[in-house]
Structure formats: C-alpha cells, structure tokens
Design brief:
Blueprint: H1 2-22, E1 28-31, E2 34-37, H2 40-72, H3 85-109, H4 113-141, H5 145-148, H6 156-195
C-alpha cells in the first residue's frame, strides 16, 4: 500500500511540474534575462517525502519539461540556451539527488526531520543555481553558440554580473519560497504516509 501511495505522490508531483512549466507565470517568472523558477518546490517535496529516487525522477521531469518549454515557448531572452540538456537537465538531476541525500543524511543521523527538510530545500536551490550558472558558462561562455541563438555571447565580466544577479534574486527568493512552502507540505505528506 505504501508503495502505491509513493507512486501516486510521485505521479502527482510530476504532473504538478508539467502544469507549472507550461502554464505561463506559474512555474517560471521572467525578469529581463533572469527567470525565477518555482519548480524546485515539487522537487524538494518529492526528495523529502520519497527520498533520493523521488528527487532524481522529479529532477528528470523538471529538466525534460524545461528543454521542451525552452524550445517551444521561450519567455526570457536566455531561454533558448536551456535547450541544451547540460544546462537544463543535468543541474536538475543533481539538485534532486542532493536534496534527497541531504534530507536522508540529516533525518537519519540527527533524527531532526524539520531541519532535514530545511537543509534539503536550501541545498536544492543552491545546487540548481550553481550548476545552471556553471553549465551556462561551460557550454556558452567560450563559444559562439549563444550568438548563433541570437543571444549576446557571455564574456567573463558580464557572466560574473549575471551569476551575481542570479544569486541575488533567484537563489535567495527560491530558498525563501522553498522553506515557506515546500517544508510544511513535505512534513504533512510524510505524516500522511506514516498513517497510511
């Protein structure tokens, strides 16, 4: 029964990622070249409730839907850069893995479930931002691929400002939202799972 509940929860969280991706201004909020995402919330919930495997599956769903959205309906000027799986899929897989590992490690070792959820949320946000920004630099920073896509090529100076801007807006906002929304929801879902 618990396995069926886990599959149902994974399906619901995956569907939530798909809906949030394709309904405008729900999953992605574009501000100029930056795009703040709320899609980390289902991923964090899944990683806290379903563990590492849930985090990885939801990271894959997030990454694949990101590629599709970037290819079919870009909103921000940098969205075409996210058609590359190294920029969109790999960071989300790593974020799901890290969120699940941090949760399981803290929950099992320290026996502090609430702290585990908070640290999982923070680590998922930081991991996603660091790996997305790093991938953008590695894939597009030294090539003319961005110019081919009609986007001004990053140089080292402008990339640093872009990364600092992303940390100043994206990472901080995403961490606050994750702690306020994902942590209590994951706690409620875990309690429901225990009672089931």
């Amino acid at each position: 029964m618990k396995r069926n509940l886990s599959l149902a929860q994974l399906g619901m969280l995956s569907a939530l990622i798909v809906i949030m991706t394709f309904v405008p201004y729900i999953g992605y909020i574009s501000i100029g070249a930056l795009s703040i995402t709320l899609l980390h919330i289902p991923l964090i919930i899944g990683a806290c409730v379903l563990g590492v495997k849930g985090g990885l599956v939801l990271g894959a769903v997030w990454g694949i839907t990101c590629i599709i959205k970037a290819a079919t309906s870009p909103m921000a000027i940098t969205d075409p850069l996210f058609t590359n799986p190294l920029v969109s899929l790999l960071p989300r897989l790593i974020a799901g893995l890290v969120a699940g590992l941090v949760y399981e490690l803290v929950a099992k070792k320290l026996k502090k479930v609430h702290l585990a959820s908070v640290l999982s949320a923070i680590s998922a946000c930081l991991t996603n931002t660091v790996f997305v920004m790093g991938s953008l630099y590695l894939v597009y920073g030294q090539t003319s691929e961005a110019a081919k896509l009609g986007i001004v090529q990053f140089d080292f100076g402008s990339l640093i400002y872009f990364i600092l801007g992303a940390f100043g807006t994206n990472a901080v906002f995403e961490m606050i939202i994750a702690i306020v929304i994902a942590v209590p929801i994951s706690h409620a879902l875990r309690k429901a799972k225990i009672k089931f």
